[in-house]
Amino acid sequence: MTNLIQPVKDASGNVYLEPNLATLLGNASAEAYTDYANSSNPGYTPPPLQYGDTPFNFIQRFTGFDDVIWGDGDEERYGLIYQSSAQSSTYLIAFRGTSSVYDMVLDLESGRKANFYPYAGTSNFPSNIEIGDGFYKIYSTKNNSMPASMQQQIFEAINNLPTPASQILITGHSLGGALASVFTLDLSASLPDIAITSITFASPRVGTANWQTIYNETYNLQDKTIRVRNSYDLVPKVPPADWPFDFKDIGEMFPVSFGVKGYHIDFPEIVLAWHALKNYHYVLNEALGNSPQVWPGDFPDQAHAGWEMESYDPYKSSSDIENAQKRIDVENLVKNNKPT
User: Fold this and answer.
1) pLDDT surpassing 60 at residue 130
2) Which string of DSSP letters, residue by residue, matches 3-51?
3) Helices marked H in 81-174 — which ranges?
4) Extents of the domains making up the chain
5) Structurally, what CATH architecture does the domain formed by 8-257 represent?
């Protein structure tokens, strides 16, 4: 693994996702959740992750200021740092998301904004780059018991790595995808000599049009970023792209398309099935070895025992799926605060 694998296009112009890299980063995103679940176990050590035959070994975790869902500003485990055993200057940083998708949608109702500032290099950085306020609070603030914010912890870790970093892989699922994107721009602005590849899963939109421009164009991150998105999933559709929210997508999208089969009345659980990282994993594992990288087929819901899912060709069925879901309005869902 001498160089980062950058997003490329296949013969049809669709984004190609390298299978070993996708598996590595998907497993890292999942392990960030597992580490959080072991918060009360101080002896828990995340196991090595595989990139083909190459292990990535855990070297450090970091925390964040959780003021998004619960409101009390608790310090919680939010992410992990790994090092390649084959190339010591290559690292991986993974962020976790929230435990409740429905809570995530509720929290994103307001789309409040905050100005983003990188860890370093602020003298030439524009002052009008706006991102979601909740994302920025987790990333850049702390309570009185925390010695440093998430942002400070990560950059202090980078400055003290066992081998100076030449390249960093970045990933996260859901809220973790948003935090991964915030960090990706921060790293590019603060330490521009480090090569970057970012692959996120089911990430919400992070910032406004100015954020999109500086991310994609000013720092040339569009071709270094892949957003894996299920066309059913509601979370990547918020905060809304339309005025007055004006939140925009970044990078290149790798589409998948899977939904719930059968009749279920518990709408938040349906949202969870659309959004579950394990369901993303299942479809990607089936699709990435194909050419083109699509997989139509049935599979068991990885989030609910006894439920069934169906995967479609996203390049043929996206508009049909939107219509089949009757273009569910996330704002109305949040306003009603109940299944519809």
Assistant:
1) yes
2) S----EE-TTSPEE--HHHHHHHHHHHHHHHHHHHTTT-TT--PPPEEE
3) 101-107, 133-140, 150-159
4) 8-257
5) 3-Layer(aba) Sandwich (3.40)
Once rounded to an integer, what is the mean pLDDT over residues 113-130? 91
> For the whole model, what pTM was predicted?
0.91
pLDDT band, very low/low/confident/very high, at 104 (cuts 50, 70, 90): low
How far is residue 33's CA from residue 31's CA, in Å, rounded to a whole number? 5
Compute how many other C-beta atoms are within 10 angstroms of the C-beta atom of residue 57. 14
Tokens representing 124 are 């030439």
CA gap 199, 169 in Å, rounded: 8
Omega of the bond leading into 239 within 30 degrees of 0 (cis)? yes
**Token pair recorded at residue 78:** 């939010």
- Burial classification of residue 1, based on how many CB atoms lie within 10 Å of its CB (0-12 exposed, 13-18 middle, 19 or more buried): middle
Tell me which residue of 100, 334, 150 sits closest to 239, measured CA to CA: 334
What does the block give as tokens for 94? 């993974």
CB count in 10 Å sphere of residue 258: 28
On whether the CB atoms of residues 68 and 297 are closer than 8 A, the answer is: no
Q: Which residue has the tokens 């789309």?
A: 111
